[in-house]
Amino acid sequence: MHKSALVLFSGGQDSTTCLAWALTRYEHVETVGFDYGQRHEVELQCRMHILEKLRDEFPGWKSKLGEDHLLDLKLLSQISDTAMTAEKAIEVEENGLPNTFVPGRNLLFFTFAATLAYRRGLSVLVGGMCETDYSGYPDCRDNTLKALQVSLSLGMDMPLVIETPLMWLDKKQTWDLAKALGGPNFVALIQEHTHTCYLGDRQHRHDWGYGCNQCPACELRRTGFEAFQRDSVA
Protein backbone atom coordinates (compact mmCIF):
# COMPACT_ATOMS: atom_id res chain seq x y z
CA MET A 1 0.00 0.00 0.00
CA HIS A 2 2.75 2.44 0.94
CA LYS A 3 5.33 2.97 -1.81
CA SER A 4 6.94 6.29 -0.89
CA ALA A 5 8.58 7.70 2.21
CA LEU A 6 9.95 10.91 3.66
CA VAL A 7 12.95 10.41 5.96
CA LEU A 8 13.73 12.90 8.72
CA PHE A 9 17.40 13.18 7.84
CA SER A 10 19.76 15.14 10.09
CA GLY A 11 23.07 13.82 8.82
CA GLY A 12 23.66 11.73 11.94
CA GLN A 13 24.34 8.02 12.31
CA ASP A 14 20.76 7.11 13.20
CA SER A 15 18.99 9.05 10.47
CA THR A 16 21.51 7.87 7.85
CA THR A 17 20.85 4.26 8.85
CA CYS A 18 17.11 4.95 8.67
CA LEU A 19 17.55 6.43 5.20
CA ALA A 20 19.25 3.23 4.01
CA TRP A 21 16.47 1.22 5.66
CA ALA A 22 13.85 3.20 3.75
CA LEU A 23 15.74 2.88 0.47
CA THR A 24 15.59 -0.92 0.78
CA ARG A 25 11.82 -0.88 1.31
CA TYR A 26 10.20 1.88 -0.71
CA GLU A 27 10.15 2.73 -4.39
CA HIS A 28 10.67 6.45 -3.84
CA VAL A 29 12.34 8.15 -0.87
CA GLU A 30 12.77 11.85 -0.15
CA THR A 31 14.60 13.50 2.73
CA VAL A 32 13.93 16.48 4.95
CA GLY A 33 16.31 18.29 7.29
CA PHE A 34 15.71 21.08 9.79
CA ASP A 35 17.79 24.12 10.58
CA TYR A 36 16.62 24.94 14.09
CA GLY A 37 19.62 26.94 15.24
CA GLN A 38 21.32 23.81 16.56
CA ARG A 39 24.71 24.18 18.17
CA HIS A 40 26.04 21.38 15.98
CA GLU A 41 24.92 22.99 12.73
CA VAL A 42 27.81 21.25 10.98
CA GLU A 43 25.41 18.34 10.62
CA LEU A 44 23.62 20.35 7.91
CA GLN A 45 26.80 20.26 5.82
CA CYS A 46 27.36 16.57 6.56
CA ARG A 47 23.92 15.61 5.33
CA MET A 48 24.67 16.99 1.86
CA HIS A 49 27.93 15.01 1.65
CA ILE A 50 26.09 11.85 2.69
CA LEU A 51 23.41 12.26 0.03
CA GLU A 52 26.11 12.80 -2.59
CA LYS A 53 28.00 9.69 -1.45
CA LEU A 54 24.85 7.57 -1.46
CA ARG A 55 24.14 8.54 -5.05
CA ASP A 56 27.73 8.01 -6.16
CA GLU A 57 28.56 4.78 -4.33
CA PHE A 58 25.27 2.89 -4.01
CA PRO A 59 23.71 2.63 -7.49
CA GLY A 60 20.91 0.39 -6.23
CA TRP A 61 19.69 3.22 -4.01
CA LYS A 62 20.39 6.11 -6.38
CA SER A 63 17.32 5.53 -8.53
CA LYS A 64 15.07 5.57 -5.46
CA LEU A 65 16.57 8.62 -3.76
CA GLY A 66 14.50 11.66 -4.61
CA GLU A 67 14.46 15.33 -3.67
CA ASP A 68 15.99 16.71 -0.48
CA HIS A 69 14.26 19.45 1.51
CA LEU A 70 15.67 21.77 4.18
CA LEU A 71 13.23 23.66 6.39
CA ASP A 72 14.05 26.76 8.40
CA LEU A 73 12.87 26.27 11.99
CA LYS A 74 15.17 28.75 13.70
CA LEU A 75 12.21 30.01 15.70
CA LEU A 76 12.65 26.88 17.83
CA SER A 77 16.03 28.07 19.12
CA GLN A 78 14.47 31.42 20.05
CA ILE A 79 11.99 29.80 22.41
CA SER A 80 14.40 27.15 23.74
CA ASP A 81 17.07 27.43 26.38
CA THR A 82 18.97 24.18 25.95
CA ALA A 83 22.50 22.92 25.51
CA MET A 84 21.55 21.95 21.94
CA THR A 85 20.72 25.51 20.94
CA ALA A 86 23.05 27.59 23.13
CA GLU A 87 26.66 27.55 24.33
CA LYS A 88 26.13 26.03 27.76
CA ALA A 89 27.41 23.03 29.69
CA ILE A 90 25.55 19.75 29.28
CA GLU A 91 23.95 18.70 32.56
CA VAL A 92 20.90 17.04 34.07
CA GLU A 93 18.13 19.38 35.16
CA GLU A 94 15.87 19.17 38.23
CA ASN A 95 13.19 17.29 36.27
CA GLY A 96 15.67 14.49 35.56
CA LEU A 97 16.03 15.28 31.87
CA PRO A 98 19.33 16.39 30.33
CA ASN A 99 19.39 19.99 29.17
CA THR A 100 20.04 18.72 25.64
CA PHE A 101 16.30 18.02 25.46
CA VAL A 102 14.64 20.55 23.14
CA PRO A 103 10.95 20.58 24.14
CA GLY A 104 8.63 19.91 21.23
CA ARG A 105 11.42 19.36 18.71
CA ASN A 106 10.41 15.94 17.39
CA LEU A 107 6.73 16.84 17.56
CA LEU A 108 7.40 19.87 15.38
CA PHE A 109 9.69 17.94 13.06
CA PHE A 110 7.05 15.33 12.35
CA THR A 111 4.30 17.92 11.97
CA PHE A 112 6.26 19.88 9.39
CA ALA A 113 7.35 16.63 7.72
CA ALA A 114 3.71 15.53 7.50
CA THR A 115 2.78 18.86 5.92
CA LEU A 116 5.54 18.40 3.35
CA ALA A 117 4.60 14.76 2.80
CA TYR A 118 0.99 15.78 2.13
CA ARG A 119 2.11 18.14 -0.64
CA ARG A 120 4.59 15.65 -2.08
CA GLY A 121 2.26 12.64 -2.01
CA LEU A 122 4.39 10.67 0.47
CA SER A 123 2.60 8.44 2.96
CA VAL A 124 5.37 7.18 5.28
CA LEU A 125 7.46 9.29 7.67
CA VAL A 126 10.69 7.68 8.89
CA GLY A 127 12.57 8.84 11.99
CA GLY A 128 15.57 7.60 13.95
CA MET A 129 14.01 7.87 17.41
CA CYS A 130 14.92 5.18 19.90
CA GLU A 131 13.88 4.14 23.41
CA THR A 132 16.78 1.75 24.01
CA ASP A 133 19.86 3.97 23.84
CA TYR A 134 18.65 7.51 24.43
CA SER A 135 18.73 10.29 27.00
CA GLY A 136 15.19 9.93 28.25
CA TYR A 137 13.66 12.39 25.78
CA PRO A 138 9.88 12.00 26.07
CA ASP A 139 9.36 12.82 22.38
CA CYS A 140 11.45 9.76 21.41
CA ARG A 141 9.12 7.29 23.12
CA ASP A 142 7.19 4.77 21.08
CA ASN A 143 3.86 5.73 22.68
CA THR A 144 4.46 9.40 21.87
CA LEU A 145 5.02 8.65 18.21
CA LYS A 146 2.12 6.22 17.95
CA ALA A 147 -0.17 8.91 19.34
CA LEU A 148 1.33 11.46 16.96
CA GLN A 149 0.74 9.13 14.00
CA VAL A 150 -2.95 9.00 14.86
CA SER A 151 -3.18 12.78 15.28
CA LEU A 152 -1.37 13.56 12.03
CA SER A 153 -3.40 11.03 10.05
CA LEU A 154 -6.64 12.52 11.37
CA GLY A 155 -5.48 16.09 10.93
CA MET A 156 -4.23 15.54 7.39
CA ASP A 157 -7.14 13.23 6.52
CA MET A 158 -4.74 10.72 4.99
CA PRO A 159 -3.26 7.42 6.25
CA LEU A 160 0.19 8.57 7.37
CA VAL A 161 2.50 5.99 8.90
CA ILE A 162 5.40 6.84 11.23
CA GLU A 163 8.19 4.26 11.04
CA THR A 164 10.96 4.14 13.66
CA PRO A 165 13.21 1.21 12.69
CA LEU A 166 15.67 1.89 15.52
CA MET A 167 13.11 2.15 18.31
CA TRP A 168 14.13 -1.06 20.11
CA LEU A 169 17.78 -1.26 19.01
CA ASP A 170 20.82 -0.26 21.02
CA LYS A 171 23.73 1.51 19.33
CA LYS A 172 25.64 -1.71 18.72
CA GLN A 173 22.59 -3.11 16.94
CA THR A 174 22.30 0.08 14.92
CA TRP A 175 25.84 -0.48 13.60
CA ASP A 176 24.84 -4.09 12.88
CA LEU A 177 21.82 -2.89 10.92
CA ALA A 178 23.93 -0.49 8.89
CA LYS A 179 26.25 -3.33 7.90
CA ALA A 180 23.32 -5.57 6.99
CA LEU A 181 21.80 -2.84 4.83
CA GLY A 182 24.84 -1.58 2.95
CA GLY A 183 27.82 -3.71 3.89
CA PRO A 184 31.26 -2.49 4.98
CA ASN A 185 31.19 0.44 2.53
CA PHE A 186 28.08 1.84 4.17
CA VAL A 187 29.58 1.40 7.63
CA ALA A 188 32.66 3.32 6.40
CA LEU A 189 30.41 6.08 5.06
CA ILE A 190 28.76 6.41 8.47
CA GLN A 191 32.13 6.54 10.22
CA GLU A 192 33.53 9.23 7.95
CA HIS A 193 30.63 11.44 6.95
CA THR A 194 27.86 11.34 9.58
CA HIS A 195 27.84 13.67 12.57
CA THR A 196 26.65 12.87 16.09
CA CYS A 197 28.61 15.08 18.52
CA TYR A 198 26.42 17.61 20.34
CA LEU A 199 29.31 20.10 20.39
CA GLY A 200 29.79 20.03 16.64
CA ASP A 201 33.38 18.75 16.83
CA ARG A 202 34.69 17.78 13.37
CA GLN A 203 38.36 18.18 14.31
CA HIS A 204 38.96 14.95 16.22
CA ARG A 205 38.72 11.67 14.29
CA HIS A 206 38.16 8.39 16.12
CA ASP A 207 37.51 4.84 14.91
CA TRP A 208 33.79 5.50 15.19
CA GLY A 209 33.89 8.92 13.51
CA TYR A 210 34.35 12.59 14.42
CA GLY A 211 33.45 14.11 17.78
CA CYS A 212 34.53 15.42 21.15
CA ASN A 213 34.45 11.89 22.63
CA GLN A 214 32.94 13.31 25.85
CA CYS A 215 29.33 14.39 25.26
CA PRO A 216 26.51 11.83 25.74
CA ALA A 217 26.03 11.42 21.97
CA CYS A 218 29.71 10.62 21.42
CA GLU A 219 29.72 8.21 24.35
CA LEU A 220 26.78 6.23 22.99
CA ARG A 221 28.23 6.13 19.49
CA ARG A 222 31.67 5.08 20.76
CA THR A 223 30.48 2.30 23.07
CA GLY A 224 28.14 0.97 20.40
CA PHE A 225 30.91 0.89 17.82
CA GLU A 226 33.33 -0.83 20.21
CA ALA A 227 30.77 -3.57 20.86
CA PHE A 228 30.12 -3.84 17.12
CA GLN A 229 33.85 -4.24 16.46
CA ARG A 230 34.26 -6.89 19.15
CA ASP A 231 31.38 -8.89 17.71
CA SER A 232 32.80 -8.57 14.18
CA VAL A 233 36.18 -9.92 15.28
CA ALA A 234 34.78 -12.75 17.42
From TrEMBL:
Zn(2+) binds at residues 197, 212, 215, 218. ATP binds at residues 9-19. The keyword Zinc applies. Its EC number is 6.3.4.20. It comes from the Bacteria. Binds 1 zinc ion per subunit. Keywords: ATP-binding, Ligase, Metal-binding, Nucleotide-binding, Queuosine biosynthesis, Zinc. GO terms for biological process: tRNA queuosine(34) biosynthetic process. The keyword Transmembrane does not apply. Its cofactor is Zn(2+). Pathway: Purine metabolism; 7-cyano-7-deazaguanine biosynthesis. One of its GO terms (molecular function) is ligase activity, forming carbon-nitrogen bonds. It catalyses: 7-carboxy-7-carbaguanine + NH4(+) + 2 ATP = 7-cyano-7-carbaguanine + 2 AMP + 2 diphosphate + 2 H(+). PANTHER family: 7-CYANO-7-DEAZAGUANINE SYNTHASE. Belongs to the QueC family. Catalyzes the ATP-dependent conversion of 7-carboxy-7-deazaguanine (CDG) to 7-cyano-7-deazaguanine (preQ(0)). This is 7-cyano-7-deazaguanine synthase. It comes from Pseudomonas duriflava.
